[in-house]
Design brief:
The protein is mainly α. It is built from 8 helices and no strands. The radius of gyration is 20 Å and the shape is elongated. It starts with a helix and ends in a 10-residue tail after the last helix.
Length: 127
């Protein structure tokens, strides 16, 4: 093992790993890359479930705090979307906001976005 690490192949492997990390960070800085990486993270078996649960908890806590502080729900959805930490969730919350502006109630558009509510509520376990 130590011969491999000390050889040219070990050095090339290290350079390729560092290059990949840098390329992913640069791509994540671009909106298309951020959306693709966040979508991929949400689709991963264990990590995706955990990220969805975190997103639902963050969404409900933030929106609840904002509404109880007197912030209008549409403005609260804007703020909550920006603090989601995931481009896919942020886009979904902006769609929820648009649906609310169009006159729909809050539960219908949230139900449409399975990636937000799936496994986030006890009655969604059957999905």
């Amino acid at each position: 093992m130590s011969n491999f690490v000390g050889s040219i192949f070990g050095l090339l492997l290290l350079v390729a790993l560092i290059g990949t990390i840098i390329a992913l960070k640069v791509w994540y800085g671009h909106p298309v890359g951020r959306m693709a990486i966040d979508r991929l993270l949400l689709k991963l078996p264990m990590i995706g479930l955990l990220l969805r649960k975190i997103a639902v908890a963050r969404f409900t806590r933030t929106l609840g705090t904002l509404i109880s502080s007197g912030v209008p729900i549409l403005e609260g959805l804007d703020i909550t979307g920006r603090t989601a930490g995931n481009a896919v969730i942020e886009k979904a919350l902006m769609e929820v906001r648009k649906a609310l502006e169009a006159g729909r109630n809050l539960s219908d558009p949230l139900r449409d976005f399975e990636r937000i509510s799936r496994h986030g509520h006890p009655d969604d376990r059957s999905r």
